[in-house]
Design brief:
The protein has about 200 residues and is an all-beta fold. The chain is built from no helices and 18 strands. About 0% of the residues lie in helices and about 55% in strands. The chain starts with a strand and ends with a strand.
Length: about 200
């Protein structure tokens, strides 16, 4: 309890809430690494914010949840799931090992991305969605309830390696929903992708 604390700062309208301890580097933004500790500390944080707050949520070993917010989202965890319920903000959502579930009360109006390595992506938008869906999965299927039109795939990239020309074909697919619009990018390696139409 003496070494590990829950610290909060408020500066220029930006509030930071973070677990602090000897494992952090001097600027408080990362981990010093290398040193082993003989104890384990677990914090479960529940934070209430104004609905339109922009959120940056990060965890290493733990799940992240956000409910009923309309501001921009930047969510990242390594080992844990991500659950967003009745949100509206555009943003970047990432996890390495975990499932990703999101439902939108209002469709994002700017580009957004959903990415995991080992896990399923399950996202529900409102039925009036107009967007371009960029979908990429290596080991898993991709499904949607929306009527879509396939757009032209990105042009292959070319490079020269050891005197040989190497052409890389893109393995993502772009689908237009409605009149098209912001790009919604979905990417997973081991897991399926489901994009649902809300009621």
């Amino acid at each position: 309890k003496k070494e590990v604390t829950l610290d909060t700062t408020l500066n220029g309208g930006v509030a930071k809430v973070y677990v602090n301890g000897p494992f952090r580097n001097k600027n408080g933004n990362g981990y010093s690494g290398g040193k082993k500790y003989t104890y384990e500390v677990i914090y479960n944080l529940t934070i209430h914010v104004p609905k339109a707050s922009a959120l940056q949520l990060q965890s290493v070993n733990g799940s992240v949840k956000a409910d009923e917010t309309t501001g921009a989202l930047n969510v990242k965890t390594v080992n844990g799931s991500v659950t967003l319920t009745n949100v509206a903000g555009a943003g970047k959502i990432e996890t390495v090992n975990g499932k990703m579930t999101a439902s939108y009360q209002k469709n994002p109006t700017a580009d957004s991305s959903f990415r995991t390595v080992n896990g399923k992506i399950d996202v529900t938008f409102q039925s009036n969605l107009s967007a371009n869906l960029k979908v990429k999965t290596l080991n898993g299927g991709a499904f949607t309830d929306f009527e879509t039109t396939a757009l032209a795939n990105p042009a292959p990239t070319q490079e020269t390696r050891n005197g040989r020309h190497v052409i890389r074909m893109g393995d993502s697919r772009v689908l237009k929903v409605g009149n098209g619009g912001p790009e919604m990018s979905f990417e997973t390696v081991n897991g399926g992708i489901e994009i649902h139409k809300g009621k």
